[in-house]
Amino acid sequence: MEGRLLLKNCAVFRADGRVRHGMAVVVEEGIIRRVAPDAQVPVLPGDWEVACRGRLVAPGLVDCHSHLVNGQLLPPNGDFLLRQPRSRLERMRQVANLLIPEDVEILTRFAAARALLDGVTLVVDHLSCPADVSGGLDAQARAADALGLRLVASHSTHSLDGAAQADAQADANADFVRRHRDHPRVRGALGFHASFTCEDALLSRISRLREELNAPLVFHLAESEDDLSATYAAHGRRVVPRLDALGLLGPFAIAGYPRAVERAEAERLAASGTFVALTPRATRSFERVGESAEGPLSSLHLVGLGTGGHGTLQEELSAALAGMLHLARSGRMPDLDDSLAHLFVSGPAELCTRIYGRPSGGVDEGSLADLVVYDAIPAADPETGYSPFLLGQIVPSRVAWTVVNGRVCVREGQLLGSDYVDLARDAAAAMARVWSRARLGS
Are 235 and 285 in the same domain? Predict the structure, then answer.
């Protein structure tokens, strides 16, 4: 976009619950250049002026662990959720093996559009397209680039189909990372499925590739008790110590689904700088018994919310609130509001900053221009600027504008450059083709 994007007369969000009314935000070349009282920022020739009329401007949301494509192909209905973990895995593998890049691109376009309309500006995705890893990841990159979504794309490689295929998938994933080192929005990450589906040889290979490429690494951390018991039976270690020994933890590791993690292991994750993505709503759906992961992970600094490809981040925040209330009432979480803000904003912002090398997560000068204008005018204390439970006001509010890297992707609730209904129709047709090949109706 040429010229400046100018958000006039807005309320500016802060993660500590304070808001600044009557502000203007100037965006230029993908960066927030100025945040000042509205009267001090005149509209210049060539500016794209957005009349916010007092509405709230906040940093874009980050989906820290998603399955944009595979999550659509197997929706979490009752039949699927009531299966045993191994049966669910086999069903997911059966469908993923039938994906082709054309399907991946169509389904990613629809999922990216849906994310942008929900105020999500960055998605960390974990694709499973074993028949054509390179083609699938390239298709995701094209789709995200076309819609304007910021995407970190990885492949969910595993050893279940043999060492040769696993090595080929890891190498294809690494080639994608090399090709997307410097893209302004789409970046590549290495990936593997989970400890219990990967042999030492594959994980050692991925560890070496990670060191060579200095790339992010996406994986499922301790997916279930089945993951934990299978890992211990095969390797004589729990999941976290095994991954640690193989050099797979660290500042650019993004670990999803931490459902079987002890407190000492959580402390090791924190010490290593591993980022942990919680999916509290999904955890309660997939696990039969056991305490949720919020307890042992409540002290982690590098933590955020993911959807797992199902539902919205707003729904995950509501589920996190329910789980954290229990912790707060038992004295294990002294500041509930601050912890929720960290899960929803501050932790994901740190992840985005690490990957893209520029401050994010705030409406601040010099930060990435990943912004959302909500149809919400927050009430605030006139002396302190504090607005009680600001996150709670955001969750039910409509997303009016979504801006990614300075590009307007959603304007007054409408997707720019694509028709949402057309994308939905194409996605439904693609899913029908995959389901027909998989004979899901039989």
Answer: yes
- Residue 94 and residue 32 share a domain: no
Could you report the per-residue pLDDT of 201-252, keeping only the tens digit for each?
Answer: 999 999 999 999 999 999 999 877 888 888 889 999 999 999 999 999 999 9
Asked whether residue 336 carries a pLDDT value surpassing 60, the answer given is yes
- Structure confidence at residue 333 (pLDDT): 65
Domain with 339 in it: what CATH number? 3.20.20.140
Query: Is residue 205 located within the same domain as residue 245?
Result: yes
Instruction: Indicate whether 425 belongs to any domain.
Output: no
Return d(Cα 343, Cα 396) in angstroms, integer.
18
> HEC profile for 332-359?
CCCCHHHHHHHHHHHHHHHHHHHHHCCC
Q: Are residues 278 and 404 in the same domain?
A: no
Cα gap 133→165, rounded to integer Å: 11
Q: How confident is the model at residue 300, as a pLDDT? A: 63
70, 75, 81, 86: CA torsion to nearest 10: -20
Assign residue 403 the CATH number of its domain: 2.30.40.10
Give Cα 1 distance to the centre of its chain.
Answer: 26
